[in-house]
Specification:
- The chain is α/β, with parallel strands linked by helices.
- It has two domains: 3-182, Alpha-Beta Plaits (2-Layer Sandwich); 197-358, Rossmann fold.
- It is built from ten helices and 14 strands.
- The strands form two sheets. Strands 2-3-1-4-7-6-5 form a seven-stranded mixed sheet. A seven-stranded mixed sheet has the order 10-9-8-11-12-14-13, sandwiched between helices.
- A hairpin with a 7-residue loop joins strand 13 (338-343) and strand 14 (351-358).
- It is elongated and about 65 Å long.
- Belongs to the class I-like SAM-binding methyltransferase superfamily. RNA methyltransferase RlmE family. RlmM subfamily.
- The active site is at residue 313.
Length: 360
């Protein structure tokens, strides 16, 4: 088969399937999504997988943690020889005389052997680890894998969805998540006021590239955190050297205030507005997503901030429809061209995180 393999949060397969179907149709590609509830992945079958992969950038997808191009789907794998069929799928002539091509030396710069991040997939972690240790030397012997990781070359992925069922796929390093399973491994700092700090840390890592982080997060910049208590997102911003107006009627952790970079204003985040334009506004308020989207659009339209990161809490049903509606609402009501990126982060739950900024 050919198509795309995308990982997602378990339980959000219908949303990812709907997103892939809609975006493929908009780009002019025919295909269909295949998945099972709580599996943690979606396959979008398409005869023009290469072109579709180029058309659907990883950064442009909301519900996909990872985007891969499928080489082969292998079912009924023999536990005594899983490597042989995978080498054959990659075009290597094996001992049984399977026809194929002679692979170019160093065709892949690295190998990830994975499993879906789901209840059914997690028991496969041991198999994935052991199989990776066996497959790497076999690939290097054929010349298909470089001796040392090379991020400039395509990355090879093997995803086990059962002991005898696996996908072999390719990732473009410039158009995919660089982390196994598409999950950045972040640790909660002992000084973080709440676990929500991990959301903003992941958002800055995932929604901005290296150049944007260096340019947009500089000492002395000014930000507002709407709905700041107990101070998780404010604390993250201060660690980047930003001065923060923390807007919330609730209390902030004292060590956040002790940074000397925070002004705590007891006000309603939905009504407060800054006396002057700020570099950043962040918002993680629990409220209806359309109301949040409208307020975010107002901030961007009025020029109260140059860029924003905010969360949209999704309803239990029609979550893809609500996502599109809210993102379109922000783009339309902002009244100016925007760069908008959204992602359901690993540290999100029933929500998505959005980055929006005036287009360069």
């Amino acid at each position: 088969m050919t198509g795309l393999l995308c990982y997602c949060r378990a339980g959000f397969e219908p949303e990812l399937a709907a997103e892939l179907t809609a975006r493929a149709a908009e780009a002019g590609f025919a295909g269909y999504a295949r998945t099972e509830r709580s599996s943690g992945f979606v396959v979008f079958a398409c005869d023009e997988a290469n072109a579709l992969s180029r058309a659907l950038s990883w950064r442009g997808l909301v519900f996909a943690r990872q985007k891969l191009r499928v080489i082969a789907e292998l079912r009924g794998l023999d536990p005594k020889d899983r490597i042989g069929p995978m080498l054959a799928a990659l075009g290597v002539v094996n001992d049984a005389g399977v026809a194929g091509r002679d692979p170019p030396c160093g065709a892949y710069g690295s190998l990830f052997v994975e499993h879906p991040d789901s209840d059914a997939g997690k028991p496969l972690a041991g198999l994935a680890r052991a199989f990776g240790n066996a497959l790497r030397p076999a690939l290097r012997k054929t010349g298909l894998l470089t001796k040392h990781d090379d991020p400039s070359l395509p990355r090879l992925h093997v995803c086990f969805v059962d002991g005898d069922h696996a996908f072999v796929a390719i990732a473009d390093p410039a158009d995919s998540a660089p982390w196994p399973l598409g999950i950045p491994r972040l640790r909660l700092h002992p000084d973080a006021p709440s676990r929500s700090a991990l959301k903003l840390d992941e958002a800055l890592l995932t929604l901005l590239d290296d150049g944007e982080r260096a340019r947009l997060l500089r000492n002395g910049m000014h930000a507002a955190d709407l709905g700041a208590a107990p101070g998780g997102w404010t604390w993250v911003l201060t660690r980047h050297g930003l001065r923060v107006s923390a807007i919330d009627n609730g209390p902030l952790r004292q060590h956040v205030l002790d940074t000397g970079l925070v002004e705590h204003l007891r006000a309603d985040g939905f009504h407060w507005q800054p006396p002057r334009a700020l570099d950043w506004m962040v918002c993680d308020m629990v409220e209806q997503p359309r109301r949040v989207a409208e307020r975010m659009a107002t901030w961007l339209r009025e020029g109260w901030c140059r860029q924003a990161i905010f969360n949209l809490k999704l309803p239990m049903k029609k979550r893809w429809d609500e996502t599109r509606l809210c993102l379109d609402l922000v783009a339309e009501q902002a009244g100016r061209p925007l760069a908008i990126r959204a992602r359901q982060l690993y540290h999100d739950r029933e929500e998505i995180t959005v980055f929006a900024a005036a287009a360069a």
